[in-house]
Specification:
Elements: E1 2-6, H1 18-32, E2 36-42, E3 53-66, E4 69-80, E5 83-88, H2 105-122, E6 129-133, H3 139-146, E7 157-162, E8 170-171, H4 174-180, H5 185-188, E9 203-204, H6 205-212, E10 215-218, H7 221-227, H8 237-242, E11 247-249, H9 279-290, E12 299-305, H10 312-324, E13 328-334, H11 338-350, E14 357-361, H12 365-374, E15 377-380, H13 390-396, E16 400-404, H14 407-412, H15 422-425, E17 429-431, H16 436-452, H17 454-466, H18 472-486
Length: 488
């Protein structure tokens, strides 16, 4: 079938978070399964143009409504990571140094959504599936059915994936926003459509996508259940329960071509289950890079964006607690908030003479790969985590995860002592409450196993490498959803 992915991000040319990885990797896997897949996204000035192959203009004058007039945009085609991509200029909106963070973000993404539909309509592209991702493309299903359904285009089906429900696209000036692209706000501003369930004078773009889409997915079954609760729904729980017949969770995968310790060129030594012992050459290389002492003790690692969601106080506690338990600790991360970075710099400076800890405040792609391969344990104490990709990467690299029981972490990591699966079916350690007590208890169990039962710990690490968290199974699940809504 012909599938169009609409997104505000894609890896590696315009990546902010996991959304970018998902869009690219899922498209690649769907192509492997024989489908025709295109990604449509804004043509940001800040993209990595050096990673786009054969970039050329395919549409010189795409006329898009803009405040009662029609504005001409250009559409360019190129290939990224083996996927056909279409990039739409959006006037001054796409002249920016970062994908998110400007006051006109919601205007850019609204304008882009109308432009993408207008391009498909005028070029007679009729994808069987229009797959939209997160709030930035949430108006696409609304516009498709409210505008283009009356223009003779009604046989496509819309899927909307919620990657994170923290950002929903709330707007208190809906008449201005929708009027910009030629929509009558009175047609859609009602409790049954786009009116936010809590802020009655506000439109909610994500709510609109949930109402209008033929199917809604999120990135793990547990997160899907959490979103239907008052605590995890962030105001969308009632709506998602009302539309539960078209809502489900699918675990994300990771690209096994990119994340493969047997072929990863960023490692000091490649390894697999057959020569697992070579993993420890990466541990030595990691210690050399970060000037850690070469001692008989485990390395605990964190690779993350330093945001409140990730459990910052728990990470800080784990740094000192792990040292007290006889482990080494490595952090690679940065925050969009300078104050948070400052807090971690202060901690780094206070630990400056300790050869068992290294806090790298920033991001380094090559170092991240070596950390995944060289660490023994990988900590993810998130307060909430829709899916999580870092635990999937750590499992792939035989680094045992320690995670909090939430979202996709609960769906992918199975505790050695408490999952009921035994050693053969376990792959890590899990704690329940976001408390230092629960965290310490779990770290203690993991570190104790490393010291006292190395053969058990090694088997746990090897188990993680045996789990299949590639995109193969998620792509099949999406394929089933596509076929299901096509038949309706």
């Amino acid at each position: 079938m012909y599938i169009c992915m609409l997104s505000t991000e894609m890896a590696p040319i315009a990546k902010v978070g996991g959304l970018a990885d998902v869009v690219t990797a899922l498209s690649r896997e769907l192509q492997k399964r024989g489908h025709v897949c295109e990604i449509i996204m804004p043509m940001y000035s800040c993209m990595r143009y050096d990673l786009i192959e054969d970039l050329h203009c395919v549409y010189e004058e795409l006329w898009v409504p803009h405040y009662g007039q029609w504005r001409a945009e250009k559409v360019f085609s190129g290939r990224v990571a083996g996927v056909n991509c279409l990039f739409i200029t959006c006037g001054n909106y796409t002249e920016r140094s970062a994908i998110y963070g400007r006051e006109d973000d919601i205007f850019l993404f609204t304008y882009f959504s109308r432009a993408a539909l207008e391009f498909m309509y005028k070029t007679e592209r009729r994808p069987e599936i229009i797959h939209c991702h997160d709030w930035g493309t949430a108006l696409v299903p609304v516009m498709y059915y409210e505008i283009y359904g009356g223009l003779g285009w009604g046989d496509s089906r819309c899927v909307f994936t919620i990657h994170n429900n923290e950002c929903q696209g709330l707007c208190w000036y809906g008449d201005k926003l929708l009027g910009m692209v030629g929509m009558d706000v009175s047609r859609v501003f009602s409790p049954e459509k786009l009116q936010d369930d809590n802020a009655k004078n506000c439109i909610n773009l994500m709510k609109g996508a949930i109402v209008y889409s033929n199917f809604i997915t999120t990135v793990s079954p547990t997160f899907g259940n959490e979103m239907k609760s008052s605590e995890g729904g962030r105001g969308l729980n009632g709506l998602l329960n009302r539309f539960s017949n078209k809502f489900g969770g699918i675990i994300n995968g990771i690209d096994y071509d990119v994340w493969n310790p047997a072929t990863d060129g960023k490692l000091a030594a490649n390894y697999s289950l057959e020569n697992f012992e070579r993993k420890y050459e990466n541990k030595r290389a990691l210690r050399e890079w970060l000037h850690l002492s070469d001692e008989w003790k485990p390395i605990i690692a964190v690779v993350t964006r330093l945001t409140a969601q990730k459990g910052l106080d728990l990470i800080k506690h784990a740094v000192r607690s792990s040292l007290g338990m006889g482990a080494q600790f490595v952090l690679l991360g940065e925050s969009p908030d300078g104050r948070v970075n400052g807090d971690f710099w202060n901690m780094k400076n206070s630990l400056g003479g300790n050869s068992n800890v290294h806090l790298w405040i920033g991001y380094h792609e090559e170092l991240s790969h070596l950390i995944y391969a060289g660490a023994d344990l990988f900590l993810i104490p998130s307060l909430f985590e829709p899916c999580g990709l870092t635990q999937l990467i750590s499992l792939r690299y035989g680094t045992v995860p320690m995670v909090r029981r939430t979202g996709g972490l609960a769906d992918t990591v199975f505790d050695l002592d408490r999952s009921g699966r035994g050693l053969e079916g376990s792959n890590g350690y899990v704690f329940g409450n976001a408390s230092t007590g629960d965290l310490d208890e779990t770290m203690s169990r993991a570190i104790r196993t490393w010291f006292d039962a190395p053969e058990v710990f090694t088997q746990l690490a090897r188990n993680g490498m045996s789990f299949n968290y590639s995109w193969e199974n998620p792509a099949k699940d999406y394929e089933n959803i596509y076929n299901y809504i096509k038949a309706k």
